[in-house]
Specification:
Length: 446
Amino acid sequence: MEIIIAGTGEVGGHAADVLSMAGHNVTVIDLNQERLQLLNDSLDLRTLTGHCAHYGVLEEAGVSDCDLFIAATQSDEVNMLSSFLAKAAGAKKTISRVHHTANFSLNRTAISTKLGIDDLICPEHATAMAIARHLRNPGTIALEEFGKGQIFMQRFPVSKAAPAIGKDLCDMELPHSTRLAIVESGDDVSLATARTQVSEGDIVTLIGEVKTFDTARKLFNKEKEKRITVAIMGQSSTAVWLGRALKSRLFSVRIFVDEHERAEQLAEKLPHVTIIEGDPTDTAVFAEEHLEVVDVFIAVTSDDEHNILGCAQAKTFGVGESIAVVQRTKYLHLFEHVGIDHVFSPRQVAVRAIEHLIDVGPVRSVAMFDDSVAEVYEVRPSEKAAILGKDLRTIELPTKSMIAAIRRGDRVYVPGAEDQIDQGDTVLVIGPHGINEKLLKLFTTS
């Protein structure tokens, strides 16, 4: 691919490294000649000194013939303007990095139609989602992101005397808009079929539309759920996104901030989260809030050193798991020595998100469930696919696979056996590892 990257900061520079090493032809634009020279000395790419929001500079970079334009400067406005100009000049696909929550939350269809920006990347959001995936099943996050809050997934045990025990799945009378996806019985983990039965103590993964999920859950477990306690240190946008991502009955979340005005803002934005004004690295605050008993401590401030200190202290005082966000990679080697369990780098997470967006094929794997029992596939049927307009009950999916959700415009739903796939839909399939080629044939063959 012919790729142009605007900006040599943490994300732009790392993207240039990864994409050039992957064999793409990369051109990097920046006003800082020293940074460009460092890239030129270490990578096989082309550099151009200039302002990426100047049309002449983009033309000189060859934007009219590029397959992908990535705007990754420190300015949201510059990134969005340069992406608009690049698209107008002929770039096939444009990706714009944004920092501010308001920009990332803009209507994507409107952005694409009016500004020509195909995708937005927010490192803070991507980092929060990566942490949430770590805390929850990756498949759960993939489905909820796909479902835009309309679809829910949960993994929980089957309780004693649950109504579903001993019945075939086809006889369980699940609500129309729910699916039993996976059953874990001891060491046996399998995808559910029509003849699947559950026993007390089995672990099940259930998928459903929000409106019917509770009804379906009670067929397997009526007991009160055990909540995971999470303490987040920091008032950054990453903290906000993470607070939203952990909005679930499974989590009890507290966010610690050090500014009164910001505390009030977050209390309004995150009514389901407890906002505490104070610094948990202060031992008095730590003790007063009994943070030694929380399950997870997460440090997401803008100060790498403070994040390291907070996590190291939390582990010292007995917190089960500590997670730190760091901007500068020079600190990455320190974590195993100070007892911090996990570290997330926004630049690395953002570049992985870019790589995911580059994968524009009709079938792509977007997540894997624990123990590699199944993968989540996002499928875009071709315009002439034979399966279009047919009842789902008549479609022969790969063995042990299921259609978990369909996205049609702004609507996302769990389909029934008599529903159909229409042109322009995006389909989420859960199935065994390695069925990409089978799905490709099924959803593209006319």
